[in-house]
Amino acid sequence: MLTDRDIVVKVLAEGRDPANVTAGELAQGEVVTIGADDDAAEILRTMGQYKVRRLPVIDGQELVGIVAVADVARSLPERPVGDLIEAISERG
């Protein structure tokens, strides 16, 4: 998943011309999704395992939405969300 931050960090900050950079050049890693029926614990596990802050939500082969850390934070107790953010932030 590409974000505005990817464009800022990987294109603009490096002085590259956005008109000459493709989405394929910015993409990295493997595709990670979450199922529409997966629970919050699975969302936390998946985000932590892959160190991602957003996950596409699929129902079968259809994209039905995107869940972000902020969405999880609004619906769960503070502790698990804090642990997740710490795990995601450890870039190693």
From TrEMBL:
Residues 26-84 form the CBS domain. InterPro entries: CBS_dom (IPR000644), CBS_dom_sf (IPR046342), Diverse_CBS-Domain (IPR051257). Keywords: CBS domain. The keyword Glycoprotein does not apply. The keyword Transmembrane helix does not apply. This is CBS domain-containing protein. It comes from Micromonospora orduensis.
